[in-house]
């Protein structure tokens, strides 16, 4: 329980760096995407390159296991605009990247607590 609370606090602190102090009502404006089905060989740069075909990528990151540093098979992409994110969902969902079919969907961000 204590470890989980510390993890949640760390995650909340990380997520709120670019937001106002009170982020209790922050939700995804629609430009943050959740991507699954990623190859373990894929890099953040590969993910960014794939999504840049549909617009400007603000951030692309693959989630790594904290102990092994290997990909957990999913990641997050932030597009510059809602329109670009919607294009990614429309055209990149179920696309093939590094030989694997990926899924792309909008994520909802809500404050933990």
TrEMBL record:
PROSITE patterns: RRM (PS50102). Keywords: RNA-binding. GO terms for molecular function: RNA binding. InterPro entries: Nucleotide-bd_a/b_plait_sf, RBD_domain_sf, RBM, RRM_dom. Gene3D superfamilies: 3.30.70.330. Residues 31-105 form the RRM domain. SUPFAM superfamilies: RNA-binding domain, RBD. This is RRM domain-containing protein. It comes from Aegilops tauschii subsp. strangulata.
